[in-house]
Amino acid sequence: xxxxxxxxxxxxxxxxxxxxxxxxxxxxxxxxxxxxxxxxxxxxxxxxxxxxxxxxxxxxxxxxxxxxxxxxxxxxxxxxxxxxxxxxxxxxxxxxxxxxxxxxxxxxxxxxxxxxxxxxxxxxxxxxxxxxxxxxxxxxxxxxxxxxxxxxxxxxxxxxxxxxxxxxxxxxxxxxxxxxxxxxxxxxxxxxxxxxxxxxxxxxxxxxxxxxxxxxxxxxxxxxxxxxxxxxxxxxxxxxxxxxxxxxxxxxxxxxxxxxxxxxxxxxxxxx
Length: 272
Hints:
434 Repressor (Amino-terminal Domain); 11 helices; alpha+beta; about 35% helix; Umud Fragment, subunit A
């Protein structure tokens, strides 16, 4: 329970006295003082008044130590934004369905990638995305495909599309597994995640390419998380033998020789 610490912190941030706050919410100074000092616990009606006055929901007033929250996030909360700190907030997903009322798998084209972090919750943005269905995906879950750029996550290469399953509860993120993460700052990123919600309210994002350093993202900075299901690679990766020699030239030589053989056969058939 962090109520007494939180209301004292929020009051001081507003540079208000106990008298001013108590007058604003219809309490006596002594009653308000007892809540700040922890000698009394407010009932639900007083909690609602405190929540309205400080523009922080009751759950956060009670359960979260607001002194541990970044200044930028506190400012957002005080402006009335409901910042998700625990990763368990109910998330409303804009989506499209088939004529049979089954979930589509929308595909975010490369041209629409830059605008996804802004339009992800806008039904008008989502409904113009191309949609398809894959028979091997569960009809009871929500999927979406995203374009991937860069070389940070081999074997998934630049230009590939990764399909993810919408994750409602971020506490279900499994350490060391790949996820698509949507943030306002970075847009769509594909990374290996490590869940640090309980430790510091963040996720550690790692690449499979060791040239890229891991970095942390706070829960409140994340818009969506999608659990990786599969990917479509637009490029054919030429195989390598056990000696790591490039088989590409060998394959091309074989193809050339096959072509020459076909020409010889055709010439023979023409003479017959």
